[in-house]
Write a structure and sequence with these properties.
The chain is an all-alpha fold. The protein has one domain (about 30-135, about 160-190). It is about 70% helix and about 0% strand. It has seven helices and no strands.
Length: about 190
Amino acid sequence: MRNAILGLTLAGILGGMAFAQPWPMRLGASMPTETFVLIWISALELSSAQMESLLKLVDELMPLRDEIAGMPEKFHEDLLRFTGTTEELRELLSAYRNELQEKLQTLEDKFADGLKKILTVAQWEKLQRGLLLEEGPALRKTPTWWRGAPRAQPERPSLGVRLELWRGMTLVRILPVLKEALADKLAAVKG
């Protein structure tokens, strides 16, 4: 009986914490990635020419992205063939990690450099600051009544996509979606 009460109490606490999230976070969890990318494109107010340039940049980066995306499978195959010592395994793991980090850094750098050439200074600053944040220093602070809640409310809206989200493996996952969203948006704008 005591375990049942403890279990129900724990389930209630965990359930309450899950529903204590601000509504944009719950909404964002069900929103497709392409929708976030379209919000990103719209919030930056990209022109057709900028979207075309960004689409070209994404096309140029796709081979590197595909190479990075294929690395886990290649690593898996290398591990299947591996018959060495523990030290050789450490070297293999280290080499894989270093190669992955190097390629991810190259992808990030090329994407950021390309974006800097495509975006205006104001668009770049908006991207770094957060797309949907209010202009100026009037960011909403966490209300006093919320501070005692089990999960802290973010000081910025959850849809305030920041540049850091376009890094590393997230960039690898986002590039195909960005390519499709840009092509769809350009077709809608021109059509």
